Amino acid sequence: MRACEIWSKTFKSKIAIWGKIEIVLQYNTRDLPNVAPIVYLEYVLNNREKRHQRFDTIAGTGVNVFSTLDSVTQLLLRKLLKEHGRFLADRR
Known about the structure:
Layout: H1 2-14, E1 24-27, H2 38-45, E2 53-56, H3 65-90
Parallel strand pairs: 1-2
């Protein structure tokens, strides 16, 4: 749990645009014993006015892994269309 706090502080201090970038949180290895509770992870990593999408995953079995990837893909495509939509439409 201490690692989550350190990561959160470091990440926030290094990225000035924290609130402007799209983030999808993936809480992995949810099937292992002694993992940090979701409530704690949400408090440390996702405790803000605009909350980020999050997925509880189990990579070993694939649970929610593709859901996370799908979410990231959708966010990226929306961002590209918003920023470059006119350019893409003009090229057709």
